[in-house]
Amino acid sequence: MARRNDGKRKVMEEAGSIKENAGKAGASVKAGIISSLKGINEIEAEIVSLVRNTVSSAFQATGAVTSDGVEITRDVVKGAIQATEEIGTGLILSTKNVAKGVVMGVSDVGGDVVNVAAQTVKGAVKGTAEIGADVGLVARRAVDGVIEAAKETSGDVEEVAKAAVGGAIEAAGTIGTSAVKTVREMLVGVVEGVKDVASAALPKSKT
Questions:
Q1: pTM exceeds cut of 0.85
Q2: Are the beta carbons of 62 and 108 closer than 8 angstroms?
Q3: What's the CA gap between 86 and 83, in Å, rounded?
Q4: Which candidate, 48, 128, 29, places its Cα nearest to that of 94?
Q5: What are the pLDDT digits (tens) for 11-34?
Q6: Coil, helix or strand for 64?
């Protein structure tokens, strides 16, 4: 009888130990994920800040906030894509932050935010197609970024959204019909919260 009780106690102790270890493992994973996500947020903020400062400095250095805007924007987006190519990952993640940083940098110096928003998204879509990455996702992230920047800088969110979506569609059109379809499908959901953007910016399907 005593032996049976000892065996039962041992089983209960082992079960308790397993439960405790599982609890520790769960807590460890939770803490690790929270830490990683905090790290990602910090990295994203750093990318936005880096791009914003670089763009505003470049505009100030040239003394022109309109004529050189397209070239500066193209170079910044190209640099970001090249960086992710070299690392081998992170294009989808960084696109939003790069696009946001560009628009905020242009806003800082009083540049044409609407035009730059379109150029930024165009550059992102074309650059992504060149390296064979997911054009639809990158277009969506880029549009998210410029809209977020417009909101944070008190810009004309509707106009920026229209320009960004139009830029994405235009760039996709130079890639092919399937790219246009993919980008359109990705962006319909993005702009739903911005008044009249979808109907104004997205081309109507031909019947």
A1: no
A2: no
A3: 5
A4: 48
A5: 566 555 666 666 677 777 778 777
A6: coil
Average pLDDT over residues 45-63: 83
**Two tokens, residue 187:** 């962006």
**Residue given tokens 């190209």 in the structure block:** 78
| Identity of residue 9 | R
Measure Cα distances from 49 to 15, 88, 147, 153 in Å: 51, 22, 16, 14
